[in-house]
Amino acid sequence: MKIDAIHLREIHLPLVHPFETSFGRTTDRRILLVQIEAEGLTGWGECVAGEHPYFSEETVDTAWQMMRVELGPSLAAADPEHGGKCPEIFKRVRGHRMAKAALENAVWDLEAQAKGIALSDLLGGSREVISCGVSIGIQPTMEQQMEKIQTELAAGYQRIKLKCKPGWDVKVFEEARKRWPDIALSCDANSAYRIRDFDHLVSFDQFNLMMIEQPLWYDDFYFHAMLQKRLETPICLDESIRNRRDALASIDMESCRILNIKVGRVGGFSEAIRVHNVAAERGVPVWCGGMLETGIGRSHNIALSSLPNFSLPGDVSASARYWKEDIIEPEVVVSSAGEIAVPSTPGRGYEVRVDLVDRLTVRRETIRAMELVG
Ligand code: OSB
Ligand code: MG
Predict the structure, then answer these.
(1) Active site residues
(2) 240: CB partners within 8 A, 6+ apart
(3) Nearest ligand, CA of residue 258?
(4) 3.30.830.10, 1.20.1740.10, 3.20.20.120, 3.30.70.790: which CATH number matches 121-351?
(5) Which of 8, 33, 202, 315 has the fewest Cβ atoms within 10 angstroms?
(6) pLDDT tens digits for range 123-164
(7) Residue list, ligand 1 pocket, CB within 6 Å
(8) Ligand nearest, relative to CA of residue 237
């Protein structure tokens, strides 16, 4: 595909409800969007890096810089036929996986349109509907925390994930289990615990959680394996898994029994599929994580979640949980059975509301292939 231009944009969008985790509170999002024009078509990508380097080392600004000076010009010069070519094109650049993913995913988005097939089919998906859970942030009071759970259960979500941290964990699980003894419940610590907390973490076993997500350091396998030996509850790794090798190491070391796949965290659809496949070979179930995406990233997560080993409900929820107005149409809706229908129309299956995106844009830049002189 002959790439004519790569446009970077930053948009600002307030969340409907603030989202609090062990690493901080988000009320407004700065979001980097990528638009690749080729052969009369436009592919979109969303960079999931946050404003601050708290979840990962990357931020909106580091991703912008990498796309501008390294990744964008290389991609524009390579004119890839297939999204799967991107890892090779980006190989010289170490890290910066969220920046790479935004570009790579836009190429897959373009390719699906050019071929006239659904993005989910291009990725190798087989599910017509995907199962949805929710990730509920830390609330100011216990009462509000319980109300949130009630609201999401009433909406049909199949699994409730509670953000937790030292001081905001067992008492919340206790309250939740008193009210809902049998729901699918999990927690996500975003690396808030340490070795001194092992006995405390083992006490989580009494709450029959589906999993404990990333309890220890963001880059650790070894101590998670030590902890998993003592826990009945499966550990699920999120932050630690950067690629297929990490997935394989964490499974074989028994650092976890479940994997969260975030396409941005692993550097794009190609690597996400490789992580999915190696987990499937090892009999480890996966689910699709979320990063408070707009409809663009969300539509890509839906397509990815249609792959066969995404057998657990993901953090892929309705647009309205995040945004007053999403930048795609139709918005993503979740049925009362807690499912999203995977689009079967060509491309991502949701139109980008370019007029709205234009209004929300606070910064933009266009990258083209370096002109060869002489
Ligand atoms: O750890 O899964 C996480 C959001 C931002 C950063 C990290 C995480 C999350 C979520 C929200 O849990 C998932 C979502 O609803 O998009
Ligand atoms: Mg997580």
Answers:
(1) 163, 262
(2) 214, 217, 218, 219, 220, 221, 224, 246, 250, 255
(3) 2
(4) 3.20.20.120
(5) 202
(6) 999 999 999 999 999 999 999 999 999 999 999 999 999 999
(7) 55, 135, 188, 190, 238, 289-292, 315, 317
(8) 2
